[in-house]
Amino acid sequence: MKDQLGQIVRFGLVGAVNTGTFFGIYLLLHPWMPYFLAYTLAFLLAMVGSFFMNTYFTYRTRPTWKKFLLFPLTNITNYVIQSVGLYALVTWAGLDTRIAPLVAAVVAIPFTFLLSRKILVPGRGAGAGAEAAAEPTESRV
What we know:
This protein is mainly α and 141 residues long. The chain is 76% helix and 0% strand. The protein has five helices and no strands. It has helices at 2-29, 35-58, 65-92, 100-120, 128-133. The longest helix is centred in the first third of the chain and has 28 residues, at 2-29.
């Protein structure tokens, strides 16, 4: 339980850094392209950073090519939730396109935690920390 609580806290810290990175990239791209394209590109770039921060810091496991290739699957759900939220917030709620991505991102946090943990920590369960340390050797990223 202590390990899981630590993971949740670290996930929150990584999420804050990743959200800041995403939002900074989004704001840089926003003036030069339609908001949804800027959002998508920022999301993809931040996802790569998120993978490495979550493997090394949140779940304390090695990054591998297999995990790197599977990690976007966790973000597909995140992307869908955030995209629907972004569209709804901008179109129906009239929220500013510079703020709406942050609000949509908050809604997706619990889903992202559960899915990324499932991908990045093999055999996730009570002993997930020990199992992660004993995971089989794979090619590192």
